[in-house]
Amino acid sequence: APPEDIATTTRPSLEEASEPPQPNVAVPEEAEAPPPAETPPRPEYRAALVVPYLGPRLPAWFRIFAASCRKAAPLLDVLVMLADAQALPKDADDASWSPANVKYRVLGRAKFAELHARAALVDDDHGRGSRQADDDD
């Protein structure tokens, strides 16, 4: 087909241009509701998120974060490691905001510091414990 001449190309009117395009497929007036979802099978692999926290109290937004982990429960466990016992919420077992896949462990300051010191020694050698490059003075 020959190319269209720009001068002879017609443009839609302003009213036509502002109307949304109509779909080319027929949409049933009443769509059937999907069947009730079955409980999905547990995945073969799960992920763990470790959240170390040093301080006397978890931040105000932590409840929202914990509640948001509920949707990821089939795939994710969250371990909140606390250095201070007073940081553990008194209602941490309240399922209305803290789902079962969010777990809390109070380590105490000494154990917390020990784990962080050991973590600094782990490098890309799959945990064999060599020193970091900045410690090689």
Give your account of this protein's structure:
The chain is 18% helix and 14% strand. The chain has three helices and three strands. It has helices at residues 14-18, 62-68, 109-121, and strands at residues 47-53, 76-82, 102-106. Residues 132-137 have low confidence and may be disordered. Strands 1-2-3 form a three-stranded parallel beta sheet, with no helix packed on it.
* Helicity, as a percent range: 10-25%
Strand-pairing-aware structural class: alpha/beta
Strand content bin: 5-15%
- The helix/strand series, from N terminus to C terminus, equals HEHEEH
Largest sheet: 3 strands, parallel
State the strand order across the main sheet. Answer: 1-2-3
Give the low-pLDDT segments.
132-137
Principal-axis shape equals elongated
Work out the radius of gyration. Answer: 28 Å
**Count of DSSP-assigned helices:** 3
What is the end-to-end distance? Answer: 76 Å
Task: Tell how many strands the DSSP assignment holds.
Answer: 3
Task: Calculate the mean pLDDT score and round it.
Answer: 75
